[in-house]
């Protein structure tokens, strides 16, 4: 450890650390847009394609950071233009066009390097270009990298709105007068900058890893572009620095070590990201499964209790489980207060919860038959699944859409919603008769009924039901109730 | 009566295929227009031309009397839901705030006023509680409301909506049509690409019947005749009859 710290205090190591950090941040920021615009392949292509530019610059001006930079940017832009030109003017498919151009450029570069490095006294190593040589970073390289990083980051901040809209919705961007095509080329320019700056650190082959891996990781972790960009920059930074340290410790090549570190972060996010990670998705699935098992247990217990035959044996048989796993379910139901302690009997809360499930099941069955047009045999399984998943608000909407049915397609009664009467007035169909019940669910309802002259025990007939109101005939008088009230009025169905 | 949009002799063709041929239109300010026509009738192309996204082969388009380039702020486009990348890392508020972008210069930041306008637009569409949700987590109806909120937030005069009722629930459809009617009453001009012939009479003040050429346009009562619709849809009419879309 102390040995490592000593190494890291060497001047070349500090330069390498700074260069790696800068490249990590810059590629992280830029990579978000590359990934979101589906330009990963273009990024890779551009990285490879700058090679001949660098070689050409070397031939012209010798070993110079600025020379490499200029040559690389020109080669990069020529590649971008070449790809776009082929895509628009030749019938070749997009990715094929990219492949053709970048492999050709790359090959020219490789041939150039091997040709000139045959000459005596030329220190140009192909390997350094392919995989970087971060330990050989000179001060002039560092200045260039710093300048480029600042330029890239500032550009992204200044043009953030333009980049956001043109990436998210290019057509909308155009309607706003944003020059979408220009922004595309500007990004290509930034991309070639980033590639040149990364040349020394990770090399042309692996720079795409620094662009897309941290960005893809960040996209798994956040739902908002600004935080995705910041996260991606941080992940890029850590990948580069940790990768460099690993490489020094393990005495291996830094570029690949950085790429591998970035991939490790990505793998961590794939499994452990809070929303999108596989582990949490699996846990949520298991939770749901456990809840469904519990709810099924409660529902069957409720049914058996209603039939007066609720025993451990009958319940185990209904659920198709062994006695031991049934004990687990019962234990959970007891801790939740749904079943009485020490007694195999549903508590009032348990009954309420069970009725909610039965209501969901039967309403959904009715919906599938009446509205979707499935037949009675097809619906039970569907409803078995959906009774656990439908939120109550949606069920209320289904209830209303169906006109508040009283029975399901099999003829079983649909329980009332908790807190509503067991047989509300709304359940009666046109021409059916009923009697206002003695017991109403609250003073509000009683008062409203009294005001309308509907006293307990009054006989009435439903004349007309609409979505807004129910029209009743009481004796010779006609009374109109809003649907919201008709749902709360407890009646007895006298069925003629 | 002023004209929000004037189209004079517009023709557009892709490669050699004619998509729009010699269209003349005077769109009056303050009305809700339905654009009706079969698939491939050039409805989307008409929108693109109005928005200045494509160069017409011939003809001229005037927005409030001048070219689209100087009127971009005044025109807002609501794309089809299927044209949106719903996995994009953006929240509802981010999208609605996009409506403020055309009002900002390059170095100008969004301020309190912009935030307030976005909130008001969300409220108008009844989705203020969804502001911080990622757009992909919403239902179809909510997604459509987000884009309408963005349009409101832009304070445009002219609204171009591409099939806003596709894939939304009944409540949202009602909410949207109420909003569109309200905007028209406030003097906004709205053009809506619409497919469901059964609701045309109820929804639109005026209609434009299009099938590569302009079949007819004007007040819905007079223009939405069986004869005109038959001409627009050509041989497809018997099917429409059978499905009860028109009577």
Strand order of the largest sheet of chain B: 5-6-7-3-8-9
**Count of distinct structural domains of chain B:** 1
Characterize the overall form of chain B: globular
- What helical percentage do the residues of chain A reach? 55-70%
Report the CATH architecture of chain B: 3-Layer(aba) Sandwich
User: Which series of helices and strands of chain A comes N to C?
Assistant: HHHHHHHHHHHHHHHHHHHHEHEEEHE
User: How far is it from the N-terminal to the C-terminal residue of chain A, by CA?
Assistant: 93 Å
Structure description:
Chain A is mainly alpha-helical and 496 residues long. Chain A has three domains: 274 residues, ABC transporter involved in vitamin B12 uptake, BtuC, CATH 1.10.3470; 73 residues, Arc Repressor Mutant, subunit A (Orthogonal Bundle); 76 residues, Ferrous iron transport protein A (FeoA) (SH3 type barrels), CATH 2.30.30. Helices cover 67% and strands 5% of the residues of chain A. Chain A has 22 helices and five strands. A five-stranded antiparallel sheet of chain A has the order 4-3-2-1-5. Chain B has a single domain, classed as Rossmann fold (3-Layer(aba) Sandwich), CATH 3.40.50. The mean pLDDT of chain B is 87. Chain B has a six-stranded mixed sheet, with helices on both faces. A three-stranded antiparallel sheet of chain B has the order 2-1-4, with helices on one face. In chain B, 32% of the residues lie in helices and 25% in strands. Chain B has 247 residues and is an alpha/beta fold. The two termini of chain B are 33 Å apart. The interface between A and B is medium-sized, with 21 and 24 residues.
């Amino acid at each position: 450890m102390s040995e490592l710290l000593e190494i890291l205090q060497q001047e070349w190591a500090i330069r390498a650390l700074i260069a790696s950090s800068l490249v990590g941040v810059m590629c992280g920021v830029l990579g978000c847009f590359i990934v979101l615009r589906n330009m990963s392949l273009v990024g890779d292509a551009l990285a490879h394609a700058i090679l001949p530019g660098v070689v050409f610059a070397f031939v012209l001006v010798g070993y110079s950071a600025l020379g490499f930079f200029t040559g690389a940017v020109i080669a990069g832009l020529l590649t971008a233009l070449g790809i776009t030109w082929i895509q628009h003017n030749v019938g070749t498919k997009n990715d094929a066009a990219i492949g053709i151009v970048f492999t050709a450029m790359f090959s020219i570069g490789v041939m150039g390097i091997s040709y000139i490095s045959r000459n005596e006294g030329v220190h140009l190593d192909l390997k350094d270009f392919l995989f970087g040589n971060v330990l050989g970073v000179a001060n002039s390289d560092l200045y260039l990298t710093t300048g480029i990083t600042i330029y890239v980051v500032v550009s992204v901040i200044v043009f953030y709105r333009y980049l956001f809209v043109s990436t998210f919705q290019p057509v909308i961007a155009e309607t706003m007068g944003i020059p979408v095509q220009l922004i595309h080329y500007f990004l290509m320019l930034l991309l070639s900058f980033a590639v040149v700056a990364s040349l020394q650190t990770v090399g042309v082959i692996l720079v795409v890893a620094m662009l897309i891996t941290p960005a893809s990781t960040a996209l798994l972790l956040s739902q908002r572009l600004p935080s995705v960009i910041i996260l991606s920059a941080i992940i890029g930074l850590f990948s580069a620095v940790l990768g460099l340290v690993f490489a020094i410790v393990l005495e291996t090549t830094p570029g690949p070590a950085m790429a591998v570190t970035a991939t490790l972060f990505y793998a961590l996010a794939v499994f452990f990201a809070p929303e999108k990670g596989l582990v949490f998705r699996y846990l949520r699935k298991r939770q749901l499964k456990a809840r469904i098992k519990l709810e099924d247990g409660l529902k069957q217990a409720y049914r058996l209790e209603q039939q007066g035959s609720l025993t451990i044996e009958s319940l185990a048989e209904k659920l198709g489980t062994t006695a031991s796993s049934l004990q687990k379910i019962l234990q959970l139901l007891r801790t939740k207060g749904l079943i009485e302690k020490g007694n195999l009997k549903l508590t009032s809360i348990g009954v309420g919860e069970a009725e909610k499930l039965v209501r969901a099941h039967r309403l959904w069955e009715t919906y599938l038959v009446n509205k979707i047009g499935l037949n009675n045999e097809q619906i039970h399984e569907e409803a078995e699944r959906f009774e656990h998943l439908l939120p109550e608000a949606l069920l209320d909407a289904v209830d209303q859409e169906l006109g508040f049915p009283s029975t399901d397609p099999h003829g079983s009664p649909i329980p009332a919603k908790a807190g509503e009467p067991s047989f509300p007035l709304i359940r009666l169909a046109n021409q059916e008769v009923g009697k206002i019940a003695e017991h109403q669910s609250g003073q509000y309802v009683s008062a409203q009924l009294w005001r309308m002259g509907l006293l307990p025990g009054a006989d009435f007939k439903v004349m007309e039901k609409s979505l807004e109101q129910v029209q009743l005939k009481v004796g010779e008088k006609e009374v109109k109730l809003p649907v919201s009230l008709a749902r709360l009025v407890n009646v007895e169905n006298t069925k003629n | 009566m002023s004209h929000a949009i004037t189209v004079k002799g517009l023709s557009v063709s892709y490669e050699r295929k004619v998509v729009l041929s010699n269209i003349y239109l005077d769109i009056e300010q303050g009305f809700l227009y339905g654009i009706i026509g079969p698939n491939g009738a050039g409805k989307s192309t008409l929108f693109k031309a109005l928005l200045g996204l494509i160069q017409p082969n011939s003809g001229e388009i005037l927005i409030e009397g001048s070219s689209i380039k100087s009127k971009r702020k005044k025109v807002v486009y609501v794309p089809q839901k299927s044209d949106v990348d719903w996995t994009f890392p953006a929240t509802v508020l981010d999208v609605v705030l996009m409506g403020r972008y055309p009002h900002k210069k390059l170095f100008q930041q969004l301020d309190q006023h912009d935030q307030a306008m976005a909130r008001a637009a969300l409220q108008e569409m009844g989705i203020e509680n969804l502001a911080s949700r990622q757009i992909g987590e919403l239902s179809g109806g909510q997604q459509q409301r987000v884009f309408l909120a963005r349009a409101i937030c832009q304070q445009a005069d002219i609204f171009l909506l591409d099939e806003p009722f596709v894939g939304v629930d009944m409540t949202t459809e009602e909410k949207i049509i109420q909003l569109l009617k309200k905007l028209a009453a406030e003097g906004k001009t709205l053009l809506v690409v619409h497919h469901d012939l059964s609701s045309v009479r109820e929804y639109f003040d005026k209609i434009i019947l299009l099938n590569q050429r302009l079949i007819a346009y004007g007040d819905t009562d007079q223009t939405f005749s069986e004869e005109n619709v038959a001409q627009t849809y050509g041989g497809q009419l018997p099917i429409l009859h059978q499905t009860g879309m028109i009577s």
